[in-house]
Every structure is written in C-alpha cells, then in structure tokens.
What we know:
The protein contains four helices and ten strands, in the order ααβββββαββββαβ. It is α+β, with helices and mostly antiparallel strands.
Amino acid sequence: MRAHRWSMKNRRQLSATLAVLALAWWPGWVGCGPESVPVLPGPPLNANELQYLGDRLNEPRGGFSFRMPLGWTAQAIVESSYQAAVGPVFEGYLPHIRVSREAAPLNFEFYLAEARAELARQPEVSGVEEDSPFVTTAGVKGRRWVVYSFQSGGRIWHAHYLFPGPGETKLVVSVSASKQDALRMAFVADACLKTLVIR
C-alpha cells in the first residue's frame, strides 16, 4: 500500500523529471549513491577509457562528482538544481550530462519499474531500447538505459544511468547527444560515469 501511495503522489514528479532529462536539448536551455551497505569496488578504468576523461565535476549540493569528458565544462543550466557537464556543439546539437536526485521511498527495483512505465507513456520517446547493469569503479551498482527522443531537429540519443542513493533517494544521470554521435558518446559516457562518486 505504501508503494501505491508513493506512485500516485509522485507520478507527476517522476514523469516530469524523465521528460526534462529526455527532452532538454536546445543549446540555449540544456537545461545514485550506495545505500548503507558495504560495496565492492568495480573494475578499474583501462588506458583507452582514461584518455577520454577530463576534469572532475564536483557538486556539493547534489552530493555527487564524476569526471567529465575531455574538453567539456561544468555549467549552471536552466531547470536544473545542479551543475551539468556541457560539451562542444556537434551536428547542431549541444551534448550534455545532467543529474537529478529523486525522493522515492520505495525499493530500487520498484522505482525502475515506475520510471520505465513513465518513459513508455511519453510519445516523444522511443522507450527503453537498451537495458543493462552498470557498476562504477567505487562499486555502486545501477542500471543503464538507452532511449531516443524525436524532435524537429532529428533523433536524439540518451543514456540514463539510474542508481539507488542514500536514504530514500535515487540518482538519475542523463547523457544526451545527437544520433550521429551516439556510438562515440556511448563509450565516453560509460567511462565518465564509472568515475561517479555519490555521497
């Protein structure tokens, strides 16, 4: 019953967050941590991954940090409580990584089911086309989803990394890039998000 109450109370918030993450694309508007259990380190980054990493984005208010892609910068963006990593324009699109922290008092698997259902209800989004486990070098385990959104400028690639956070929070990290840059960004985004630290 508790889960049902959460679903009815917070469905709009979850839907709005995923919609913003999936559709925040215009260059002028571009805009989860371990629970209290021991975790084992994930696999270390290899030399090929390390060459794509730049400075670390530290966000004290959000309680997270990660290495940005090489040459990207941390910027405050509209409609986001936290700084985002923003890259150079490619094929008319401004790639970016943004983070949202959700208050979700339910277990992680149920949260994933709710989030996936919300994505399926958005006509501009393809639905989850790839779904795989993801683990950071610090041992934080989450899920990695790939979706596409359809906009007037073309098809946009998104990778959503979802993690359980401290307490009853969940962390959603969204990486967005043009479809033409998807193959490269998939590799670079994985490398960057493996360095994610959640406090």
